[in-house]
Amino acid sequence: MRKAFGLAALLALCAGAGLGQNPIKFRSTETVGLSSGSAGNCLQLQTVNGVSKGPWFVGLGAGLDYYRFRSVPLFLSVTRDLAVGKRDWLFLYVDGGTNLPWYKRAAGSLITPGGGEASSTFHSGEYWSGGLGYLWKLGDHSKKAVLFSAGYTVKKLSEDQTEVSGCPIGEICVVPPTPVVYEYLCRAYQLMIGFRF
Amino acid sequence: MRKKISLLLAGVCVVTGSLLLFPGCLKDRVTGSYKLYTPVYALKSTVLANINGDPGTAINQTGQIYIKGSYIFLNEVDKGIHIIDNSNPSNPVQTAFLSIPGNLNIGVRNNILYADMYADLLSIDISNIHQAKVLGSLQGFWEARSYAPPNEVIVSWSVKDTSFTVIPNGLTLLPQAGYVGFGGYVTNPGAVNALAEFASASNASQGSTGMAGSEAVMTLIGDYLYAIPEEHSLGVVQVTDSTQPNLISSNMAGYDLETIFPIQDKLLLGSKEGVFVYSISNPSQPTEVGEFKHGTACDPVIANTNYAYVTLRAGDGCGGSANELDVLGAQDIVNATPIQSYPMTSPTGLCLDGSLLFVCDATVVKVFDASNPDNLQLLSSVPVNNPNDVIAFNHVLLVVAAGGLYQFDYTDPSHVKAISYLPVNNSKS
Question: Which of B24, B179, B184 sits opposite A110 (nearest CB)?
Fold first, then answer.
């Protein structure tokens, strides 16, 4: 987590170093897309809001990611626009932050090998993404643009599973039930379309 | 310009198509980690020789409690029994510790202490508490707790952090049934044995026994020890000769049995769904004479000659959703009828002293005037964190809780006063 923000801050610093005399402007990007990996194709929504100066942008993002386990990524986003023509641009983006779980297993869905029931608690993990995009400005001097991007995303979550009562009724375990901790590393391609203004 | 854009769009399409067509190139990964507990065994003969009344030691995890005379016997879950001199309740002194691996249950008859050591029932001479001596044993009585080879005992556990990796495939949300956990069992949660005053009194001529709490699975009456050796059985052991506890029978007695409570010539076996009533008119051959039902829950039961009191607790794998105290008419215990229910938070053990009813409930011990069971009057709530069970005797209320052993003076039940507290050792030796 610290690494993520450290890297993002570094990128932001680099971005600042390269700034010219361009004014600072507020910018917002709303996207919808797919996370595509071994778990299939899943919906992803994001909003990123921040400031741009020249080709650089730094902002904070929040999203909703349904890949494998529904979660809410909160991240710092750094973007660099690259001019291709007057109205068409490419851009590179790097996002890093935390991934908050928003997923609960159905009651009774975790059964231990011994036939008992286990409880489940999810915990947050890291969130990373990066990629390349194409945007089409709606006017020669307009901030508004539609965009498409393709990238790669990594999200992590952990889950504690603890046997609720692994012992016969009226009895206790020789060894108290200790949680099995699962660390989930989810990797997916990220395809987004959206609108920037 | 248009050509450039077309090239860009073509590139975008190629990228999109590639990513959507080959998502399987990316593999998610699941890493699981858990603590693997491996038993450490010792020779049973060595363990038995070491049960000799060590000096008192710190309390780490409270279990059952039992009183006899001026002594308190407090189970250290799976480790042994603290013997506490309670001649002065305001200054209880931990005088000795019996190191009994796998111990949960306690009963005392005359100077013989009966205790379980995992599957075995031991009889221990405590005439001199500091020179306790194992007199005899009944091997394999607690049949649900046989974990070790016949001549060995689990004395500790080695703990090893263990991990494994899974590459999930497709949409499967891993781990679905891949839960890895250790399942080992012992009897009776930090609970307390119950021996009714009726039983003590009625059998005084055949041997002096002590008093315990409401969540017991073992009780001594006269020359017999009755216990729930596993959740469906009632075991009968003749203890006339303490050097040779003699198994009389161990038979199916009900379902999901949790507690045993003696009243007059009956045994009440509290189960998850109700109470099974057994007659011990013939002490060596308990006979089922009735059964009464209640909501599904964890439930100790106590009774006097007129009323039975049952606490129902939801959760903890007990099932059900009720948290309440039920009062039943028990003039005819075989046909007990519900009289009144009182809502509770998370009730556990309970006990009676005359017309006073004490109920452990989450963060307090509630003291009721039970003169009229139709309309219990709450006299006071004594703050105790996670009380598990209580014994009220001679105006001294013993409360065993997660945090230790508490004693209160209830001479004035509306103003219960703290007398002493033996805390658990949080550093965990």
Answer: B179
Long-range contacts of B16-19 (CB under 8 A, 24+ apart): B16/A148, B16/A150, B16/A191, B19/A36, B19/A150, B19/A189, B19/A191
Distance from CA of A125 to the nearest CA of B (A): 13
Q: Is the dihedral of CA B38, B44, B50, B53 positive or negative?
A: positive
The SS3 call for residue B85 is strand
For chain A, the structural domain boundaries read 2-103+130-155+187-196
A30-34, A177-181, B82-86, B182-186: the lowest-pLDDT one: B182-186
Question: Looking at the 3D structure of chain B, how many domains does it have?
Answer: 1
| pLDDT recorded at residue A113 | 61
Kindly determine whether residue A170 and residue B256, on different chains, have CB atoms separated by under 8 Å: yes
Residue A81 to residue A88: CA distance in whole angstroms: 10
Q: What's the pTM?
A: 0.71
Residue B98 lies in a domain: yes
* Cα separation, A46 vs A49, whole angstroms: 10
- Under DSSP, is residue B15 helix (H, G, I), strand (E, B) or coil? helix
For B14-38, what is each residue's pLDDT tens digit? Answer: 767 766 666 667 788 888 888 777 7
Greatest Cα pair distance, chain B, in angstroms, is 110
In B, which residues are within 8 Å of A191 by CB distance?
A: 16, 19-20
Reduce the DSSP state of residue B205 to 3 states and report it.
helix
Which residue among A36, A90, A174 sits closest to B147, beta carbon to beta carbon? A174
Cα gap B143→B164, rounded to integer Å: 34
Determine the distance from the C-alpha atom of residue B213 to the mean position of all C-alpha atoms in its chain, rounded to a whole number: 10
CA neighbor of B327 nearest in space, from B290, B297, B372? B372
Give the residue from A170, A23, A65 showing the smallest Cα distance to B316: A170
Least reliable range by pLDDT among B75-79, B253-257, B385-389: B253-257
3-state secondary structure of B131: helix
DSSP state letters, chain A: -HHHHHHHHHHHHHHHHT--SPPEEEEEEEEEEEEEETTEEEEEEEEEEEEEETTEEEEEEEEEE-SSS-EEEEEEEEEEEEESSSSEEEEEEEEEEEEEE---PPTT--B-TTS-BEEEEEE-EEEEEEEEEEEEESSTT-S-EEEEEEEEEEEEEEEEEEES--S-TTEEESS---PEEEEEEEEEEEEEEEEE-
Q: What is the 3-state secondary structure (H, E, C) of A154-190?
A: EEEEEEEEEECCCCCCCEEECCCCCCEEEEEEEEEEE
**Distance in Å, alpha carbon of B158 to nearest chain A alpha carbon:** 11
In a domain, B15, yes or no: no
d(CA B315, CA B153): 32
> What six digits make up the tokens of A143?
């901030």
Q: What is the dotted CATH code of the domain comprising A2-103+130-155+187-196?
A: 2.40.160
pLDDT < 50: residue spans in chain A:
13, 17, 19, 166-172
B169/A contact by beta carbon, under 8 A: yes
Report yes or no: B165 and B31 within 8 Å, Cβ to Cβ. yes
ipTM topping 0.90: no
Range of the domain at B121: 40-155+189-423
The C-alpha atoms of residue B397 and residue B213 are separated, in whole angstroms, by 11
Which of the two residues, B321 and B289, has the higher pLDDT score? B289
Instruction: Give the CATH number of the domain where residue B250 resides.
Output: 2.130.10.10
pLDDT exceeds 60 at position B426: yes
CB contact under 8 A, B12 and A134: yes
